[in-house]
Amino acid sequence: MRAHQGIAFRTAYVIAGNASDAEEAAQEAFVKAYRALGRFRRGSPFRPWLLRIVANEARNRRRSAGRRAGLSLRAAADESSGDAAPSPEGVLLADEERGRLLAAVNELREEERLVIACRFFLELSEEETASALDVRLGTVKSRTSRALEHLREAYG
Amino acid sequence: MAELETALRALGRDVAFPPTPDVASVIGGRLERPRFWRRPVAIALAVVVVAAIAAVLAVPQSRSAILDWLGLRNVSVVRVDKLPAAPAQGRLDLGRRVTLDEAKRRAPWLRVPDSEPDSVWVNESLPGGKVSLLWGTPSNVRLLLTEFTGRTYIEKVVRGDTPVERVKIGDAGAWFQGPHVVMFQDRDGRFRESHARLARNTLVWQVGDITLRLEGGLTKDEALRIARTAS
Description:
heterodimer, A: mainly alpha, Rna Polymerase Sigma Factor, Chain: A, 67% helix, 0% strand, B: alpha+beta, 5 helices, 13 strands, 26% helix
């Protein structure tokens, strides 16, 4: 499970909206997943199953704290310490553009923001996104295309 | 449409997620606390875990499942119906070329087989870093031995019918027969398909904290023979 803790924590963070709730949610989910491993349906994909448990924990924490999901994304301040060459997409997307696009994502309705975060920021598959958000695959598809439509309108 | 999606993915790389806490270690303590379960329950659970893993192994056509190899702490295996497209000549992410002595200075734990490699590489951009010993050239790899410790993780994507066999070497080992896709986790903790490449027969084994990965056009016996000289 160690190999999945990064994606588990980020998924929890996207849903819970803050790091300490996300950490608790990921911890609790790992314990639950470990104990439920015997019930894990043979032959079905493991990561969506784990992410579903993680996301449930994250949602519970968000609800019980009475907060609305406060995912507020900010662009990383400093990329200079990273690898030598920025990715071609990174060059493509200038700072100002990035800020604008990020603002547009943050303006989306929560359900659309979550689907965009899962699909493009966390790079989850459609199946994993459906598991994490506890919706059907068709809903992920339609919500994604609606969210992209809204982004295109806002972002131009 | 595609442009916006590309832009969103690029943006995702710049989103400042908080650093991932070491959840697995913390829960490791919670799970292993002796008073947590009475012993028979703990044994029963262990049996269930082993059975779940054995079941996945025993059903090669299982559609898609990950198993965390007992003992291979830094490797996870995903079984799929069809391999994702990944270039055979994909990026090796070897990093910087160094001398063998420098590599040993940087990674005192490094294990070197009997025969000296043609070149030695260190990639420190991965969490924990990795050292690669290469026979042949980067564009024509005969044999590649990659070693890493601690915080580096790899994911292997194998087709349902690809044999994955546990072998006796070091603390734990596994032999992957035939082509499969391999990905290293990047410093953000993500496995990126863009960094995936198609790998050939591979032996992966664990010695203490070190994970070693030997890839090339080798039979299992040849790989094991080389591996043993490095163990």
